[in-house]
What we know:
Elements: H1 7-14, H2 18-24, H3 26-36, E1 43-49, E2 73-75, E3 82-84, H4 88-91, E4 97-104, H5 110-119, H6 132-140, E5 150-153, E6 176-180, E7 197-199, H7 210-230, H8 234-251, H9 265-271, H10 275-288, E8 293-298, E9 300-301, E10 304-305, H11 313-337, E11 344-349, E12 353-354, E13 366-367, E14 371-377, E15 384-386, E16 388-389, E17 396-398, E18 401-402, H12 403-413, E19 421-423, E20 429-431
Parallel strand pairs: 1-8, 1-11, 4-15, 4-18, 5-6, 5-8
Antiparallel strand pairs: 2-3, 4-14, 6-7, 9-10, 11-14, 12-13, 16-17, 19-20
Helix pairs in contact: 10-11
Amino acid sequence: MTITVSRRTALRAAGLGVATWGASGWLPQIAPALATSETRKRQFILLWMAGGPSQLDTFDLKPEHINGGSFKPIATNVNGIQISEHLPQLSQQLDHLAIVRSLTSKEGDHGRGTYFARTGQRPMSVLNYPALPASVAYQLNDTNTGLPPYISIAPFRAFSQDAYGSGFLGPKYNPLIVENSAGSRPNGDSPNTFAELKVDAMSPPTHVGPARLQRRLQMWKRQEDRYLRDHPHGNALMHGEVYNAAIDLMNSPAGRVFDLSQEPAALRDKYGRGVFGQGCLLARRLIEEGVPCIEVSLGASADGVGWDTHADNFATVQRLSAELDAGWSSLLSDLHERGLLETTTILWMGEFGRTPKINNNAGRDHFPQAWTCVLGGGGIAGGQAYGQTTADGMEVDDRPVTVEQVMATVCRALGIAPDTMQMSDIGRPIPIVEAEPVNDLLS
């Protein structure tokens, strides 16, 4: 049986949910067609771990050393690779992932480390550089989606606002922020509720009716046009472009992608009831809609920045690992089932790692010298652990990888040349990143 279906039609149909297409038996049949479609563009998901996750308690355990702590390693579906016992579902999807255990940098401050890990540039430059997701969105932008090219779910921006921005690319490539709704439980700790994700100002105030809204928009348009006649350049033009895009989104049926109540309750449970789990589910829906770049954050909570485990490291990491395991593993299996993983590259990363030595508060401190990130999905050679740290975890002793190389590898996996020039606001072309990709991590 041959099924011919356009990318847009197929993805919109898949967006109806597992209950509709999965039950009918169509989903397994359309997945190969989607995966090999020549019209498919590459897409990127960044899973950002604010605060800096402990590599020794997630993907680079040291069970034979005192620095290893109390967590036990478990086998994965790739022979010879072990990860934390608190990531059991991910352990069965290691064939889709490449663990980089030899990441190293010199930025051990939250603000500086966040900016560096997300832009590939040292902070305090005269230029405001774009974050990697913004550059990806700029390069892969599809104007036909009806949605912004870069969407960030529950970001924690207190360490560095600039690390989340589009820099000299202009406000069009700033992220659309999806926040945890007020009153929603961020960790999904209620047995009867899901975390609620919301885009601010997606609909007009309740007291403003359609006619009144239209009059307001007409008045704004007249004022905007009058101003642009006298100031037809720079920030004024960008302001109008961003404002019009926001209005279009308010009136577009594409905005329904943010309504997770359309998904079966059982599937929402599988992802996890917290912000991260529901964010991963939203990421899958946005991938189906063709959004080039989506970011989902895990770490911020009412108690602080979760991965910043200076105290009580093990209880905190165990809790965060449960959220990570449910959300990320469900995202991988969902994308794979829909034939979307082959063209979706995923990066799991924080601003640095944690000290191998456990401090007097049962915590781990900042440690950029030898840490871990994980790549997966399209363009990545999964099923491997690349690089190695010493037995005590203190140093990289095999195939060190820099932050810039990780960025270059992501670009190459997405079909973007890492040295692609982007014009800065001072008229100077700047490469996305000045580094060579790690070829062994590419498929």
